[in-house]
Amino acid sequence: ACTEVPGRPATAPRLLRNLAPAKLTKPELPTQLIPQPEDLSLCKNLSVLYLYDNRISQITNLNYATNLTHLYLQNNCISCIENLRSLRKLEKLYLGGNYIAVIEGLEGLEGLRELHVESQRLPLGEKLLFDPRTLHSLAKSLSTLNISNNNIDDIRDLEILENLNQLIAVNNQVLHVKDLEFLLNKLIKLWKMDLNGNPVCLRPKYRDRLILVSKSLEFLDGKEIKNMERQFLMNWKASKDARKISKKRNSKNEEDSLSEGI
């Protein structure tokens, strides 16, 4: 990690010039010192960049970091996702704890596998939103999404993320089980979902209904779904459905008998 220059606050350019640009791949710039990313043109081999816990308000000066695969920008003052389209090799993006109201500006990042945008510091009553263009761009690549603690009440728009296998959406405002059933019918590769702290978790048969609708889900709210649990629920549903069919058939037979008698 980079170290502070004695006698004065460290700055990104001075620190980066004191390192070997050709070999630099994982600089961790000092926290609480940087208002924005400085010129990284000397570091074209940069693959991992730690800029968390600073005072960055705008994402800038990353155009030269075309080999970047991991970018850590948690706990800054960022309100807009921008200037990332040149980072074609980016795989993991961490933006938790900022002021972002809309997930946007990620078009073209077709290799992005993980997106972490939890705990945005939003105005009271506002919720995190998703730009459809960004969701469409991430449809085939994104496998892990963390949107916890963002006052979100509807996640059906995530249906387009066909390769999503981990969804962390703790402490939001998701309310309806039927919305989750809709989503799970679309996300057939999802094996882990955590919705702890959402009102929907208090709904009757919440866990049972989600296990029944998703064959891929292995962990729900931090608890493993055992094969025995799934099989029991499937047998119970099959028995219930059979009783419904039988009851309907008997009811129809009774109606036919009454009709014949008349």
UniProtKB/TrEMBL annotation:
Annotated region (Disordered), positions in chain: 241-262
Pfam families with a match to the protein in the record: LRR_4, LRR_9
Repeat as UniProt keyword: yes
CDD domains named among the record's database cross-references: PPP1R42 (cd21340)
Keywords associated with the record: Leucine-rich repeat, Repeat
UniProt KW Repeat keyword: yes
PROSITE patterns to which the protein is assigned, alphabetical: LRR (PS51450)
InterPro entries: Leu-rich_rpt (IPR001611), Leu-rich_rpt_4 (IPR025875), LRR_dom_sf (IPR032675), SDS22/Internalin_LRR (IPR050836)
Protein name, entry field: Protein phosphatase 1 regulatory subunit 42
Organism of this sequence: Equus caballus (Horse)
Lineage, top ranks: Eukaryota, Metazoa, Chordata, Craniata, Vertebrata
